[in-house]
């Protein structure tokens, strides 16, 4: 299933080294001003080659809208967006045509489909996420009309952790190449990633997402709880190993009397004093900040020889070639935001029919 | 959306204190022997009042199959299962008709729908999960035909943690009331929960799920990755705050050279030496054990006065009445298994059409 | 797939001679007054034994709401409705356990599922439509809030045709047992059906549906056109062989200059002079009456010996036993209305998200 | 909803005069040989300008595959196909920017979405069906692997009717430009269409579809009956007003004793002597020919002045400009086949999971 969403729906397509990747967005309400400069800005935040700590693969990631927009506004019909693949260098991948890279999708795709487009990982490549970012940009434009703001940042690289989001100025996220709004931590993170790169290795990290100004009432019980869809959306991003929201895994050690968020009346508005709930109660937004953490494993492609097998089961070794990220989290920030925007935009539309 | 699944689909219905709860299972293949004793056994593992550390609410949870089974076998048509609510005591809840219990769904349901069935939390009650367990039992019966085994256990209560699942004998999970297969840890967990109960408080915990013998190839890129659906399924269970699989959040501190799972040839079968991947690569099962952790917050209902507001925003206090669990994880074990079974059964069917 | 609808969604279940049939309605907006007397009235219009020209099978068709309604109003959670099967007489069907009745679903169900619940046709029985009528009644209640009126009537039995709907007073439909608002034609139809019954035979007919006061704008291009969903909904009713709307099959003989519906300004409202479009243009309602015809074949069960084969392919004969309708259209009228209501209710909700 | 299908799923996009139209096919099994020459042949059967009785608008309809095919075979990932719009002449449509053409979608699109891409009808243009034909070609390739053959032909233009399909040699359909396999009728049809064109008018017609060698068991009760999905698929094609299968509307005049299809044993295979059922019983294919009729209204665009209103309700006149079909059915033949193929391919895949 290469589609996501119930009312604000996207279908992505494309392989890493095919002619193009893209997305069809169906269900975007008519009359939305489509700011193409903004879409490009978002794509540029994700694109490779943007700094010394990301892959040097060079893709312009220039997009083209094929349908669904007329005189600058969405028409209510499907918006198709295509991004051509330019810097393909397929020959970089001939060495893995028959070999299974450790912790990649090579083996499982072959087993599932009988064969695979091995060039750059084909469909399993994170290149697919460019399509998500383009669609997410349009979701963000829709959410802006109701004031919802989505911000993500790098909160951990290896063992290096930034302070809790409430102690940070999130407007500083783009001030450094690692996308951590805490300058001191950011500097250390960059140094660590650089060292890892020199070691021809990779390292994991955590991206934190924060959603402000969500209207009360978004989320659909019982299976499509707001946080359950957010979790699925995040876990569907390449290399993600975990998702928690609000108090998360740490919350299990608390007692109910510590964990419960007391309601109070804040000048006519019902608010909570603490926010262990992470802005979601019973699967439905309560108007507080929604915040969550997304764990990314170290990138599987390393510039070292690793033992493995080929498709006949014969033992061999493989080493990364080409250009890869030593740490995926800086470029994952706009992807996390995009997926969050797609989730929220969908729930926003779904919530329009819940009352007579 | 009260339904889950693409081909093996369930729709649950029912409120905590209405006439009945239930589930309709659509897409179960015809010819499956429906073992009603097994279904009841599963429901009994979840039912209230089963031990001193669970709520003393008394429900038989006897189910009735209304359709879809003929001469002991599934017919391929929808299987409807109904469980009547018996021990309702609606009067226990009159005190919260207009008051919002902290960290419950009272406020958000009212905001979303305009009003709510406040008796026992109505639809937001964990009573709904009985329907999931009944459906999950049928999913387990289907998965048994291909040898898939699903086991969950309590791996953490408060700060008390059991060893890694690979060091445990999971057949001992049902040997104690807390459902932790490590007897020593189990004893401590029971003591802790008992103390928490005496303190009129609650505490959180972690349930670990392990799925063995999954065929290679289950899971659907790119959005419906196996672990993404597992994550959504778990996060849709009441009180869940986090999900991780394989190396999870701890994996972010590792380097790629440590984290990658080397392939080797195990007598003709391709296996991995380590399993940081948690049995899933590129969103598709690779045949290794699938394992994951699910974080449950402390139950929100505590037997203490807590400040809150009523539906007009007036400040007041509320205290738990009735009968509630001091810790939800022992009873959550069969629910986690049920949701895992629903995910796997669905992917098993979906995988039947991927190759010509 | 035993479910229908995108936002106003129903899942039906149950076999003709199992314990019960029923439906779960998900997506009904909260706050709708659920008029149980009206639901029963609708079920009574469909129930067997209501007149001398319908089957004498005796079912009360008393329904019970299990969930989703609190203090007389929908809560926004799933509404489960169950109707117990009472007058089952399963022994009437033992003669067809192994024999394929001509033009029934016996052979195809066996071939598809490997076996079947043969009692009364099991799931393939038109008894399933009672669940649709119950759900359709709730859809009608929702549509009433915006003024939409749905009326169906018998427009043809065998060769006997009623005048065009615009020449009829549809409020007279329930004045006779054949449900044709034209008294003269009705009388002839009743006589014909009675004769057919005496001949131990059956006969087909046409039900016409008329929907008034539909808001402009319902229907979703390009696949879910309003008339395409109406068509599917009608064709999903047992014994239906054809669907046409507006000018239908007769329209193919016209020229464009005759068929086009001119627009004019009717006191500030845009209207059309003729209505060959049947109220739908480009798949979207234009505010004119929506009207359509549904062709029903003669009931397959006849009280005569017919050559056939058994499940081993051995030739044999079979004759109808039990109690069956000589003509299905009088009882089909509320079913056609119910399905139309389900289609319209769904499009009404879907239309709430098409504009920013 | 611009997508169709449950397992073999398509999403189409694009407007008549935008940069391109296209389709994403998701769920096509891996390993299917993608015959690009065949896809082009199918598109050429639909393309404008192919004969004197079709529109002279000139489109090459050359397609490009962007993804999902590797080394000539489907990979199991989404197949994106794009067809650029070449001969756009947008100026032809400036006269209708503010005027509602009778029996077009101009008024309803404006009412639904608030504005519209008026160039050539935008999304409501039958140009969208080129995307369906491309996707349908791939569905046909899949169906060929199990021997299913789908053929459509023009069976009626105005009052001119061809004999019943069982009396025709369907291999002759492409022998003439009207696509009627009966040469005598074809000649008359062509003369009629030519006359209509000279009259600056249009005329309707009927396309008959025939599907041979369908395996027994396709179709999903109770809502997604095989003929119900076929009906929806056909009714979703521009200008379609009616659908009937098997005996259709004529069958209503028959008695059950005439209409029932007797089973017999044909050398070990269960067959029916007649086929009023049209190959479908209880919504499931029985192995006999599936056949159906699709009614197309006369094209709404005529080369004559017609009274209408503009978007402010002001009365005005409008006349067709540009290049249009005097009769749509010859070019509709491949579209009907494509939609039938999409329906059958989907049911073929869905049927793979119905038995344990």
Characterization of this structure:
The structure is a homotetramer of 356-residue chains. Chain A is α+β, with helices and mostly antiparallel strands. Chain A has one domain: Chorismate synthase, AroC fold, CATH 3.60.150. Helices cover 24% and strands 22% of the residues of chain A. Chain A is built from seven helices and 18 strands. The first copy, chain A, has helices at residues 36-46, 106-113, 129-144, 183-198, 226-235, 256-259, 329-350, and strands at 3-4, 9-14, 20-26, 63-65, 69-70, 73-74, 79-84, 149-157, 160-161, 205-212, 240-245, 263-266, 269-272, 280-281, 284-285, 290-296, 306-309, 315-318. In chain A, the strands form six sheets. A five-stranded antiparallel β-sheet of chain A has the order 1-2-3-7-4, with helices on one face. In chain A, strands 9-8-10-16-11 form a five-stranded antiparallel β-sheet. The longest helix of chain A is centred in the last third of the chain and has 22 residues, at 329-350. Chain A is globular, with a radius of gyration of 21 Å. Chain A starts with a strand and ends in a 6-residue tail after the last helix. The model of chain A has no long low-confidence stretch (mean pLDDT 95). Chains in contact: A-B, A-C, A-D, B-C, B-D, C-D. The interface between A and C is medium-sized, with 18 and 18 residues. β11 of chain A pairs antiparallel with β11 (240-245) of chain B.
SSE series of chain A: EEEHEEEEHHEEHEHEHEEEEEEEH
CATH architecture of chain A: 4-Layer Sandwich
C-alpha Rg of chain A, in Å?
Answer: 21 Å
The amount of beta strand of chain A, in percent, is 15-25%
Assign the structural class of chain A, choosing from mainly alpha, mainly beta, alpha/beta, alpha+beta, or little secondary structure.
Answer: alpha+beta
Strand order of the largest sheet of chain A: 1-2-3-7-4
* Overall average pLDDT of chain A: 95
Number of structural domains of chain A: 1
CATH topology of chain A: Chorismate synthase, AroC fold
Considering the protein shown, what is the CATH homologous superfamily of chain A?
Chorismate synthase AroC
Give the proportion of residues in helices of chain A: 10-25%
Work out the oligomeric state of the chains in this entry: homotetramer
Largest interface: A-B, 106 and 106 residues
Poorly predicted parts of chain A: none
CATH C-level name of chain A: Alpha Beta
Distance between the termini of chain A: 33 Å
Query: Count of helical segments of chain A?
Result: 7
Total beta-strand segments of chain A:
18
Major sheet size, sense and barrel closure of chain A = 5 strands, antiparallel
What's the overall geometry of chain A? globular
């Amino acid at each position: 299933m290469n589609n996501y969403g119930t009312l604000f729906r996207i279908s992505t397509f494309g392989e890493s080294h095919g002619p193009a990747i893209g997305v069809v967005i169906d269900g975007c309400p008519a009359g939305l001003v489509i700011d193409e400069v903004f879409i490009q800005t978002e794509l540029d935040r994700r694109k490779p080659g943007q700094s010394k700590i990301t892959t040097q693969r060079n893709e312009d990631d220039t997009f083209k809208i094929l349908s669904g927009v007329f005189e600058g506004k969405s028409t209510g019909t499907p918006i198709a967006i295509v991004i051509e693949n330019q810097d393909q260098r397929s020959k970089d991948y001939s060495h893995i045509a028959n070999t299974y890279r450790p912790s990649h999708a090579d083996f499982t795709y072959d087993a599932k489909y009988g064969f695979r487009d091995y060039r750059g990982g084909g469909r399993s490549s994170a290149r697919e996420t460019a399509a998500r970012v383009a669609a997410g940009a349009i979701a963000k434009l829709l959410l802006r009309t109701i004031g919802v703001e989505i911000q993500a940042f790098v909160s951990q690289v290896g063992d290096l952790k930034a302070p809790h989001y409430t102690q940070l100025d999130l407007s500083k996220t783009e001030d450094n190449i690692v996308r951590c709004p805490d300058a001191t931590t950011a500097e250390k993170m960059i140094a660590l990633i650089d060292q890892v790169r020199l070691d021809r290795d990779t390292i994991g990290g955590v991206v934190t997402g924060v959603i402000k100004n969500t209207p009360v009432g978004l989320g659909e019980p019982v299976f499509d709880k707001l946080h359950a869809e957010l979790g699925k959306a995040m876990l569907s991003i390449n290399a993600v190993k975990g998702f928690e929201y609000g108090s998360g895994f740490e919350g299990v050690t608390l007692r109910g009397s510590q964990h419960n968020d007391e309601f109070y009346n804040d000048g006519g508005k019902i608010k909570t004093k603490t926010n262990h709930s992470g802005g979601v109660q019973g699967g439905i937004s309560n108007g507080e900040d929604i915040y969550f953490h997304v764990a990314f494993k170290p990138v599987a492609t390393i510039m070292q020889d690793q033992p493995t097998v080929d498709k006949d089961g014969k033992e061999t070794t493989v080493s990364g070639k080409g250009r890869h990220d030593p740490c995926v989290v800086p470029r994952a920030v706009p992807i996390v935001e995009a997926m969050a925007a797609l989730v929220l935009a969908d729930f926003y539309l779904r919530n329009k029919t819940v009352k007579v």
